[in-house]
Design brief:
Layout lengths: L5 H19 L2 E2 L12 E2 L23 H9 L5 E3 L9 H9 L2 E6 L5 H17 L4 E8 L1 H4 L4 H12 L6 E6 H6 L1 H6 L2 E6 L14 H15 L4 E7 L15 H18 L3 E3 L9 H4 L23 E2 L4 H20 L7 H28 L4 H25 L11 H10 L4 H26 L7 H16 L1 H4 L7 H13 L10 H14 L3 H22 L1
Parallel strand pairs: 2-3, 3-4, 4-5, 5-6, 6-7, 7-8, 8-9
Antiparallel strand pairs: 1-10
Helix pairs in contact: 1-12, 1-13, 2-3, 9-10, 12-13, 13-14, 14-17, 15-16, 16-19, 17-20, 19-20, 19-21
Length: about 550
């Protein structure tokens, strides 16, 4: 009879798999980009192996023909690109733009090194004067004030010196705040180029529902600040992947919504715009975190990430995700049937709910890890560790919910060390070692997120499965009745996670941060009694000297 109950339970699991992913992958109606055409896109020719990160004196090599192929693809969606340097292979963009019939906002990278600045200026002017009909403007410096690499007066002097050498319009690009602080820059340029990046706004970014009004307000403030000057948007956009900041959620749908809503109202705003950026730049994940690599209209394989007209789905391959989730559920049910022991109908029902959640978590985590992964040994090791934590945690959760044989009590710190020394693990020591791997990794992440989380990803998808599994094991009567020796190591790790986890919450509107904090709390519960014992021991140690003094 217990096997018969598995049939309706599995049907529930299959239904959850289908309805969950069909809802997550539902098409979202968004306003179309007018004529399916974007005004201008930032473009940096780079690869995973060769980029500004490993450039020497601004020089790095890209494959032959790549720039030409890229601009041919981009010409389908825009007739303008913005560059950031013309040194070395980056200078190929001028000839390629000429051949593709594309205008260029010619970028000159300005920094703290005078020699590099001179090379940048000379090369950019040489190419701009070679193809003047393709030059929309020359951008002398990008966020130099934001990076605090020189004074405004010095930069204004550089702008004037370049202006004296060309008949083409010149500008400088930065966020509104640094234009406001440095009016001397507005006096030096022909037109004002302002960046509007609501995701990066501090102290709190702007949520997607308020972002269009926010962008219009910045443009209006810039126009009031420099009456009589032409204002253009040098960078504006939204990321498709990465961590949530306050109410700003990176996602495929949100990027599409931001770009398409802004493009639809651009004419009424009355300023030219440039979107950041044309193609995803995975190399930017190093300086800016995962989110830095996913601002492109096209992915790194040069595929359009979302259509410029018509509905957009967050999970366009949701049917495949649903099939995977159902397959995981099927494996979980087959595993439980192999135990050849009675399973109560309530446990089959629990498995019918838990198994698809495990499968959906694994699929979503796989997608997230694909955006995080760095193509080096450390990147592969980190992805492997997180995958191992989630896979074992999911299996342990399924086993516990379905009522498998009693899982042995996880060995404490001393027991795990003894097993490592002897290289012999029993069941208790093996699960204890896994528990320690989970807790140590979570502790490192929790502290890192609390201290400096701006560029770090929330990884609750990797940790909620073991957190739930160990919590279920902890609340089982057989485990609760065990007499457990004080474990100071467990106490301090649990306290660290418990305290640091909630510090990652920048605002309570940040659902991702709140879920991460809740996961940290749940992870700490099985070791919470050790925290209380250790606290009592420390208090007692402080009281004893007082008693001795009396």
């Amino acid at each position: 009879m217990h096997r018969t109950a598995a049939i309706p339970a599995f049907l529930i699991a299959a239904a959850i798999s289908w309805f969950l992913w069909s809802w997550l992958g539902r098409p979202i109606d968004i306003v179309d980009v007018p004529r399916g055409h974007l005004q201008c896109l930032s473009y940096t020719p780079a690869t995973d192996e060769s980029s500004p990160l490993n450039a020497k004196d601004g020089l790095f090599h890209v494959p032959d023909g790549m720039v030409e192929r890229d601009l041919k693809i981009l010409s389908r969606y825009t007739d303008c690109i913005r560059t950031y340097s013309m040194l070395g292979d980056q200078g190929k963009t001028m000839k390629a733009a000429h051949e593709a019939g594309i205008k260029v906002l010619v970028g000159i990278w300005i920094g703290s090194e005078d020699r590099r600045n001179e090379l940048e200026i000379d090369r950019a002017l040489e190419l701009a004067h070679q193809y003047p009909e393709n030059v929309r403007a020359i951008v002398i410096g990008n966020e130099v004030m934001l990076r605090r690499e020189m004074t405004a007066e010095r930069l204004a002097g550089i702008i004037r010196s370049v202006k004296a050498r060309t008949h083409l319009p010149v500008t400088y690009a930065d966020i509104y705040e640094f234009w406001r602080r440095n009016p001397v820059l507005g006096e030096a340029v022909d037109l004002v180029t302002v960046h509007v990046l609501p995701y990066w706004d501090d102290p709190h970014p702007v949520a997607i529902d308020q972002v269009q009004a926010h962008a219009r307000r910045i443009i209006e403030d810039t126009q009031k600040l420099f009456p009589g000057k032409t204002v253009q948007i040098g960078e504006i956009g939204w990321p498709s992947a990465g961590r949530t900041r306050s109410g700003a959620v990176p996602s495929r749908v949100n990027e599409a919504r931001f770009v398409r809503e802004f493009a639809a109202q651009a004419e009424s705003i009355g300023v030219p715009y440039n979107l950041i950026e044309a193609i995803d730049q995975p190399w930017k994940r190093m300086p800016e975190g995962t989110v830095g690599g996913y601002w492109g209209m096209l992915d790194k394989d040069r595929n359009l990430k979302f259509p410029l007209t018509g509905p957009v789905s967050e999970w366009p391959q949701w049917r495949l995700a649903a099939a995977f989730t159902a397959a995981v559920s099927l494996v979980a049910f087959a595993w439980a049937l192999l135990w050849r022991r009675p399973i109560m109908p309530a446990r089959w029902l629990g498995l019918g709910i838990t198994a698809p959640l495990v499968g959906a978590t694994w699929w979503a985590l796989g997608a997230q890890l694909g955006t995080i992964m760095l193509n080096n040994w450390w990147g592969w090791a980190w992805i492997g560790l997180l995958t191992l934590i989630a896979v074992i945690g999911g299996a342990l959760l399924v086993y516990t919910v379905a009522g498998g044989r009693n899982v042995p009590r996880p060995a404490g710190f001393d027991g795990v060390l003894a097993a490592i020394r002897t290289r012999r693990f029993d069941g208790s020591q093996a699960i204890g070692a896994y528990h320690w791997v989970v807790m140590l990794t979570a502790a490192i992440l929790a502290v890192s997120m609390a201290i400096d989380g701006r560029h770090r990803d929330f990884l609750q998808l990797a940790f909620w499965l073991p957190a739930a599994a160990f919590l279920l094991l902890y609340i089982q009567p057989a485990t609760r009745e065990l007499v457990r020796e004080p474990q100071p190591e467990e106490a301090w790790i649990a306290a660290l996670i418990l305290i640091a986890g909630p510090f990652a919450i920048d605002q309570f509107t940040n659902l991702e941060a709140c879920i991460w904090a809740a996961t940290c709390v749940v992870l700490s519960v099985p070791w919470l009694e050790f925290v209380l014992r250790e606290g009592a021991r420390i208090r007692g140690a402080f009281r004893r000297p007082e008693a001795a003094g009396n």
